[in-house]
Structures are given as structure tokens and as C-alpha cells.
Amino acid sequence: MELMKLEIVTPSGVIFDAEVKQVTLPGSEGEFGVLPKHATLVSLLDTGVIVIEKADGSEVAVAINSGYVKVDEEKTTCIVDGAVALSGGDSDLAKALEAAKELLKSAESSNTAIASAVAKVEQIGKSL
Amino acid sequence: MANLKEIKRKIGSVKNTQKTTNAMKLVSSAKLKRTEELAKRSRVYAAKLTELLNEIAQKMHHSNAEGLDNVFFKDASNPKRVDIIFITADKGLCGGFNSQTIKRTSQLIADYKAKGVKLRLRAVGRKGIDFFKFNNVELNDEIIGLSAAPDFAQAAEFISEVSESYVNGETDKIILVHNGYVNMITQEIRQDQVLPVDASKIELSSKSTSELEVEPDDDDTLLDALVKRYVEYTMYYSLIDSLAAEHSARMQAMDAATKNAKEMVKELNVKYNKARQESITTELIEIISGMESMK
């Protein structure tokens, strides 16, 4: 399977930088998935959860409040204001979940977007 | 004898000063390290954001025959009203750090005044505010405490007021002056045009071949949001940059002060020893001559 580069950058540094199979992003016009060789695209990101399928098939979720994404054939760059990563097998998962919910609730976004994002985070917390 | 005592007192006082300056130097070097780290991390974000903004502006440039007609990309070669924001430290004792910024700002003011441009000044940091107040220059906005502890929310609030007045047409150009950090021993005055975004600086080099798609479809929504974020971040980054420069300047100044104090103690010690020897010699001569006269 082909891979593409994914970068997630926040004001406090790069939090994700690796080769991935697929990524699902919470665009302002609706959620969309990106596979390698996607056409060039720039979109606003809404409050929500970025779901990443890593090269080894495992899934990672990152809760974000808002930002932008720039997609081109080789590389996807997410520029977000605030992000909390939720990954499986992490001993601090409970803490991360709390932090993610906190972040989502503080976002300046519509209540429905926040509610659906929080629900998603909870779901991910259960499945991990 | 009074002279001896005097010198001894002086040595003590200089030694105390040396201790203080040395401590300040250590504090600044610790703070510099932290600020440098902060700057390094936010630099990545700033770089990506600028890159994205450039790409979108470029795309709009191509799709629109007359170039960009967005309000943020206006031509500002002949502005009528200019806002100048300048960042200084809240504290002194950092060499020429503050005076350099003030000098450049004054120069800018003089330049624009000569062209008959209306000016508004916005000051960040106590030192700059004090200087211009003392010289009876009117300041439109002043904020203390932000340059010592940069905070994104506060910086955004400060700058959004300025960019709002830009959007409303109250000003044609916003310039940001600050003293930036280059390395441990060098600072450099930076003068950035915050708004309008300088379209000529945008690099027209696209690696991607496919047409850039934008979501939401309305170009302006995305661009407005991006520019707003870009401006906020420019402000925030300048504050961090300025703080790093302040600490490095203070470190240098305090290092020089410590060295000078050391030199002074050395000189005073020589003086003290000379004075001591002199007094011993005089005493000896007195004793000898006294004995001679008794013979």
C-alpha cells in the first residue's frame, strides 16, 4: 500500500510527523478522508477528531479545536491551534481523554460540532 | 589614613555590584534558554502558516487577472495613514536593546511625517511608552506586561483591534518594529509590514501540478481566516523574538558589567596597596627622624 507524509503542527510544536496510509479530517464543510495521491486541496478544519491510519495499520486519533489543512500528492499538512493526541496502549489515556474533551469544549465552534466531537472522543476512548 | 578606609569601602561596594550583575546574567541566560526553546517550536508553525498563506494568495493571483483584490493584499506603496507598533522591554539594564528600537521608531516617524502621512503609534513595553511620553509624543495604544510574558490570547486581542481598524479603512498600513534575536551575542532590528500582506514577497513556485481546490468554496472566507491567524501569529512571534533578544542583550550587558567590576576591583586593590605602603613609609620616616632628633 502506498504511503504519504502527514504533519500536524500546533503553535507549541510538531505533534505528529510520519508516513501514513490514510487520514480522516473534520473539514468545515464536512468530514473527508485523504489517501495518498490526493489532488491539491486547502480546507478549513472545524472542531473535531483527526483519525490517522498509520503505516502498520494501527489507528491514532487527534482531537483538535480548529485549523487548516493543506493536501497535495505527497504530503498532508495540518496547521491547528490546539491538539491532543489519543493513542492506544498509552498509560495516560484517561488523562489524554480528559484533556481532549477540555480542549474541544473550549473551542469557539457550534455546539453540535463540539458535541459530536466529544462523542467521538468518548467512543475512541472505549475502543482503545 | 582616611584615604585607605575610603578605598576599602569602594572595593566592597564594587564587589557587591559585581555579585548583582553576575546574578542577573545567570538569570537572563536561564530565561533565554527557555524563550529560545519557545521560539524554536513556534517557528515551525509560523513557517507552515506563511507557506499556506503564500500558496493560497498565489492561487488567487492566478485565477484573477487583475491580481488579488482582497482587502488584505492591497497595494500600500503610498499610504495615507500608517499604524506603527513597536515592542520594547518593560525593564532596562539590557544595553542598547530598547534604545535601538526607539531610535528606529523615531526615524520611521520622522520619515512618514516628512511625507505628510498620518501616524498612529501603538506601544508594547514600559520603556518605549516612557520614552515617547517623556517626549510628548501621543500614543494611541499602550500595553505593559505583554513583552515580558508573551501570551497568545493577549497578543491576538491587541493586534485584532489594529487589524479591525485596517479592515474598516481607518489605516492603510501596519508596521511592526521590534528588536529580534539572532544569536547569543547579536540582536537585529526587524521592521515588518503586518498588513497589507506584501504580495510581492510571495514566492511563485508551486511544486504541485494539479489545480488547488479550496474548501469552503468562497475564497475570501478561507483567506480572511488565514490572514487573521497570520497577523495574530506574527504579533505573537515578534513578542517571543523580542523577549529572546531582550534576554540575550541583558546577558551581554551584565557580562560586560561584571567584567568591568572585576577590572575596577583590581585597580582599586593596586591603589589600596600603594596607599598602604605610602602610609607605612611615612610612619617609618617619622619614627626614624624622631629617633635622630633625640640623639
Automatic annotation (TrEMBL), chain A:
GO CC annotations, alphabetized: proton-transporting ATP synthase complex
Localization (cell): Membrane
Record has Ion transport as a keyword: yes
EC code(s) of this entry: 3.6.3.14
SUPFAM superfamilies in the cross-refs: Epsilon subunit of F1F0-ATP synthase N-terminal domain
Domain ATP synthase F1 complex delta/epsilon subunit N-terminal residues, every copy: 4-83
InterPro entries documented for this protein: ATP_synth_F1_dsu/esu (IPR001469), ATP_synth_F1_dsu/esu_N (IPR020546), ATPsynth_dsu/esu_N (IPR036771)
A Pfam family it matches: ATP-synt_DE_N
GO terms, molecular function: hydrolase activity; proton-transporting ATP synthase activity, rotational mechanism
Signal peptide interval: none
Keyword Transport: yes
Protein name: ATP synthase epsilon chain
